[in-house]
Write a structure and sequence with these properties.
Structural class: alpha+beta
CATH topology of the largest domain: Beta-Lactamase
Oligomer: single chain
Number of strands: 17
Bound molecules: adenosine-5'-diphosphate
Number of helices: 14
């Protein structure tokens, strides 16, 4: 059963007051009674002392009968029992009984005490008169000679009656005090419990979402502080709640107005939120509460989501869904233990890309044949026409450049084709690089540059597409030679954990920092005249970047003008089967 604060305070106070009253009653009654008996005892001692001489004389005179008669009449008059006992405990006279019929009293505790010369006293039940009595016994002597004992005693019946009446009176007073204090306690408990009840009611309202409830107290104590803090807290909660709902509304409208499809998936795979664009994407079917695999089919997407749940990471990949292409970005939200996935429709972009690529490929193909023909005729003419050789030389150089551009464009288009597959095999990197360097021997010699291959640690064979790797090295080494006037090129190879690190360093002109972020863009050249002079197309680094991406690797560049440039390629070990 639930106990209210009122009940607890009331019960606690009741128990304390009741116990205290009972204890006070008990001990004060005991003190009164013992004080009363002590007074009686003193009175009896005085009485005994007063009678002592007279009784002693009669005993020593042997007037025992007169003594007994005197005891009976005097005892009745003062309502006190008087007993005279000789030194052997034999009762000589008694105000209540015939002494001849009374047993030996020498062993009675008060008598035994008086027989050894002390004032003896005790409270006992008397077998002679069959009642509880207070006895006082005094030694009886004449001129120092012990004669026996004079015992005076009182019936406690009357005093007990008096004490009982006193006790009843005391209990009555205590009961009145108890009732009054209980009433006061009830009032106090009520006044203490009331603010708590109000606070309880108000917090219940707040819990049910009503932030308007306030607690106003008249108290001037901690409860008032508590109520004030409660009111302040409710006000703040109300403000935060309002702001939160406002933010939620804002977020809801942003999400629903997004052109991109958006879903929130729990770790268990259930969709808990989606926007209208996503519903349109999946044909307006019911999705909330359903597992995502029932809506978005395809092993690939499920694998990505499984990976993201395991690694608590994010991804950005292209996904083919219902004849459309989506750029799918997903991230794990730790706070909600869910995954947010955004589907950006890039079908149109991809088809435009394809048109562009097809156009480039077609134009490049169409241009290549006439360019080769022009180059062939110009070279032939150069041999026969001495006079125009300088003009023909210009024609040949420009035709060469155009052929280079066409070749690079064709290669780039091929690399950009998504369906391109790598033909991987175990590649020994060092011999591959050393072989390639032979192609550049002539140019290196002309420019007086050195070319070194350095390795660190073991360099095991690793899986890659050797043909693409050659294209990558050719472009990077070609650039390094092109843009280096003194010093040389170092190709550094190292296996680091499960990755192959390739670094191509030169001591050339370097690249100013502002150009670094753009050098991998197609046709981006830093210095057009210089690039043109060396037959550059501005496509070399784009080709390199595509080859690196096809191998799931990364490329970075570090350069300082007039100090040199270093390109670092990091390639993972590819699985035996070519990636899709
Ligand atoms: P290009 O055919 O003009 O060399 P790339 O795509 O290969 O085109 O390179 C883009 C630009 O990056 C170049 O024009 C050049 O300015 C700069 N670059 C590339 N490699 C180096 C290098 N090793 N040293 C200095 N500049 C470089």
């Amino acid at each position: 059963m639930k106990r209210t604060i009122f009940f607890k305070i009331f019960l606690g106070c009741f128990l304390i007051i009741f116990t205290l009253t009972a204890l006070i009653l008990f001990f004060s009654f005991r003190a009164i009674r013992s004080h009363y008996r002590e007074t009686l005892r003193t009175d009896l001692v005085r009485l005994g002392n007063a009678l002592n001489l007279m009784v002693a004389r009669q005993v020593s005179a042997g007037q025992l009968q007169q003594l007994d008669a005197w005891a009976k009449s005097f005892g009745a008059r003062i309502q006190t029992r008087i007993t005279v006992i000789d030194r052997n405990g034999i009762v000589l006279a008694d105000s209540e009984e015939d002494p001849a019929r009374m047993e030996n009293h020498g062993t009675r505790p008060e008598v035994a005490q008086a027989l050894v010369g002390e004032v003896g006293s005790s409270v006992r039940y008397s077998t002679t008169v069959q009642a509880e009595m207070l006895y006082v016994a005094l030694p009886l002597d004449v001129y120092g000679e012990p004669l026996g004992v004079l015992r005076v005693s009182l019936f406690l019946r009357d005093t007990d009656l008096l004490l009982n009446r006193l006790r009843t009176e005391m209990i009555r007073v205590a009961a009145i005090v108890l009732v009054c204090s209980l009433l006061a306690t009830a009032l106090f408990a009520r006044s203490f419990a009331k603010p708590i009840r109000l606070l309880k009611k108000a917090s219940a309202k707040v819990a049910s979402g009503d932030f308007t409830s306030r607690v106003i107290l008249d108290n001037r104590d901690e409860l008032r502080d508590l109520a004030d803090s409660f009111n302040e807290m409710t006000e703040k909660m109300s403000a935060s709640f309002e702001e939160l709902s406002h933010r939620k509304e804002e977020l809801d409208s942003i999400i629903s107005s997004l052109q991109e499809g958006l879903i929130l998936v729990t770790k268990q795979g259930r969709i808990t939120l989606c926007n209208e664009s996503f519903l349109r994407m999946v044909g307006n079917q019911d999705v909330i509460g359903r597992p995502y695999w029932g809506i978005i089919r395809g092993q690939q997407f499920h694998r990505w989501i499984d990976d993201i749940i395991e690694d608590k990471s994010s991804f950005k990949r292209e996904l083919e869904l219902g004849g459309s292409t989506y750029l799918c970005s997903a991230a794990f939200i730790k706070a909600r233990r869910s995954i947010v996935v955004i589907f950006h429709d890039i079908t149109r972009m991809r088809s435009l890309d394809k048109i562009k690529r097809d156009f480039v490929v077609n134009v490049s193909h169409e241009l290549r044949t006439p360019l080769t023909a022009i180059k062939g005729f110009a070279e032939t003419l150069e041999e026969v026409d001495e006079r125009n050789r300088s003009y023909l030389d210009v024609i040949t150089r420009h035709t060469d450049r155009l052929i280079n551009i066409v070749d690079d464009l064709l290669l780039l288009s091929e690399l950009e084709e998504k369906s391109i597959a790598l033909e991987t095999e175990e590649v020994e990197l060092k011999p591959l690089v050393q072989n390639l360097l032979r192609m550049f021997e002539q140019r290196l010699k002309e420019k007086g540059l050195y070319a070194r291959v350095e390795t660190k640690g073991l360099l095991p064979a690793f899986r890659a597409d050797p043909y693409r790797l050659e294209q990558l090295f050719i472009n990077l080494i070609d650039n390094a030679i092109k843009y280096t006037e003194k010093g040389g090129i170092t190709i550094f190879l190292q296996q680091k954990k499960d990755r192959m690190i390739i670094e191509i360093r030169d001591t050339g002109i370097g690249i100013p920092e502002k150009h670094l972020p753009r050098i991998f863009e197609r046709f981006y050249v830093m210095d057009k005249s210089r690039s043109r002079k060396f037959g550059g197309t501005g496509l070399g680094l784009s080709i390199v970047k595509h080859i690196v991406l096809l191998h799931n690797g990364t490329i970075s560049v570090h350069s300082e003008p007039n100090m040199g440039t270093s390109f670092t390629v990091s390639l993972p070990h590819l699985p035996s089967t070519p990636p899709a």
